[in-house]
Amino acid sequence: MLEHVDLSQKISKHEYEQQIPDLQLKLLILQQKIREAAVPVIIMYEGWDAAGKGGSILRITQQMDPRGYQVHPIGPPNEVERQHHYLWRFWMQLPPQGLIAIFDRSWYGRVLVERVEKLCGKDDWRRAYREIREFERTLVGSGYVLVKFWLHISKHEQLRRFEERRDNPFKRWKIGPEDWRNREKWDDYLEAAEEMFTETNIPDCPWQIVAAENKHYARLETARIVAAALEKAVKG
């Protein structure tokens, strides 16, 4: 799927600044309607390192009521979480009715980083496809709105952003040795991602693959997709 993504899609900073305020106001209004309708919402981000997940999350939530959403940055499981099934910690962070949970990385780590880094066996990550499909169908069938993003950039653009982060003292905290190690396994992650799409791009829970080579385009596009999903939910 990724080879067919048009990474040339872009808009200017001026166009972005003209359009984002109206979208953010729409998201705020929809957030209020979601609360009134008691609809729980999950927005989930995957994608390449430095693809702009944090920037997209910031623009979606920037004008929202902070009492109505929570962002969950997902890292390696802690000691307690490792004693449970890998989905347990995500069940524990599902939003109540009327609230929004945003996952920066997700349960798809099982079939991405854990697969590539051999943190679980082949039988484990292959079984995870079925487990994830059932998990997501259960959520949607229970009334959750689920939006799944993959932010896509080229390998060349990732290198440019890595170098910018390394050289900018205000962004240096965003880059570390693990990011460079992951980049060396780009092809392995690409193979894992493509199989993940094949196995989990189901009608009830489709993937939203967003071209993120241009950050302004990606931020507007993700905001539009979230707004459309919330609008559909409150209209019934």
Question: Would you give an account of this structure?
Answer:
With 236 residues, the chain is of the alpha/beta class. The protein has a single domain, classed as Rossmann fold. It has nine helices and five strands. The chain has a five-stranded parallel β-sheet with strand order 2-3-1-4-5, with helices on both faces. Helix 3 links the parallel strand 2 and strand 3. Helix 1 runs parallel beside helix 9 and helix 2 crosses helix 9. The mean pLDDT is 97.
Short description:
The chain has nine helices and five strands. By secondary structure, it is an alpha/beta fold.
Radius of gyration: 18 Å
Low-confidence runs? none
Which class in CATH terms?
Alpha Beta
CATH fold label: Rossmann fold
Helical fraction? 40-55%
Quickly count the helices: 9
SSE pattern = HEHEHEHHEHHHEH
Mean of all residue-level pLDDT scores: 97
Main sheet?
Answer: 5 strands, parallel
Number of domains: 1
Separation, N- and C-terminal Cα atoms: 30 Å
Query: What's the number of extended β-strand segments?
Result: 5
Question: What structural class is derived from the secondary structure elements?
Answer: alpha/beta
Q: How would you sum up the global shape?
A: globular
Q: What proportion of the residues form beta strands (DSSP E)?
A: 5-15%
| CATH evolutionary superfamily | P-loop containing nucleotide triphosphate hydrolases
List its salient traits:
236 residues; alpha/beta; Rossmann fold; five-stranded parallel β-sheet; 5 strands; 13% strand
